[in-house]
Design brief:
Number of domains: 3
InterPro entries: PhnI
Keywords: Lyase
Oligomer: single chain
Pfam families: PhnI
Protein name: Carbon-phosphorus lyase complex subunit PhnI
GO molecular function, one term: lyase activity
Number of helices: 13
Helix content: 40-55%
Shape: globular
Strand order of the largest sheet: 1-2-3-4
Strand content: 5-15%
Distance between the termini: 43 Å
Number of strands: 4
Length: 362
Amino acid sequence: MYVAVKGGERAIENAHAWLAEERRGDPSVQELSLDQIREQLALAVNRVMAEGSLYDPDLAALAIKQARGDLIEAIFLIRAYRTTLPRFGASAPIDTGAMACDRRISATFKDLPGGQILGPTFDYTHRLLDFKLAADGEVPEAPMRAAEADDVPHVTDFLNREGLIEEAPQDDTPPPDLTREPLEMPADHALRLQALTRADEGFTLGLAYSTQRGYARNHAFVGELRIGSVPVELDIPELGFAVEIGEITVTECETVNQFKGSKTEPPQFTRGYGLVFGQTERKAISMALVDRALRWEELGEDFVGAPAQDTEFVLYHADNIQATGFLEHIKLPHYVDFQAELELVRKLRRDAGARDMQEAAE
């Protein structure tokens, strides 16, 4: 039970004013612009867009600024704003095979048509603080730019030619929209992927790590990781064809996993899949590992009790906004509840004391 806090309106207004002052920081320091956040904190912007389910770098930058860098709070702001937007239609599925790749690597095949593209990555840095950045030093321009858009076949297509990997599931049935409908079980593959796409990156990373440490027997190779821009098309019924309305940057990961086969399927590799807004490769890889772990039942594998295999556990706890709301609600007044608990504990202590005195008397 919650009770109203009387006389708290002025205190709340003062708290808001103090929050705005703290957000601004020292007035003698130049204020961050949205352009600076969008361009120089791009990975934070990408995460907010992905977990907020809204692709808009400018709005994500605004949310980060308003939230003082608290990304979960920024994601909350983006999701709340998203609910106010009208919906004009649904875009056609994006074709990642026609991606203009900024980064494309494979841990399974060295020689790829189109080559491996290392792209902008921390993978080969020494993780040493660069004090030139503190001095606002000049950054040299990269010698190569993004690749031109072209058909870039997926690595798993090479395995598929020999029947060494399962066929990618084909289902044109539109899944329920998690932005409009609550999550319900059982969740099919498409709905699970939708939930994992907007799941908390840290939670998904922890689950993925657990699968690699033996909690799900999920040894995987990164078949391919690609980052780049893809066109977005919208079907116009009046025209009878799709019209390109813009481009978005996405990260796609396909993992190749072992599979010993079953009574109906020969031994072959299986897939894990991840697709996320922006350059978000840690999340995409984590998503692919968890996706594969959740597929144990449809592949006829044993349930070993691993958290990453439990669909309800994963999907019901992966949403950081729901988790934050439930966690932080305990900060609200619980005076009546606590008084009831307090009186109960006092009564139990009195009863226990009375029993001790009676036993001592006997």
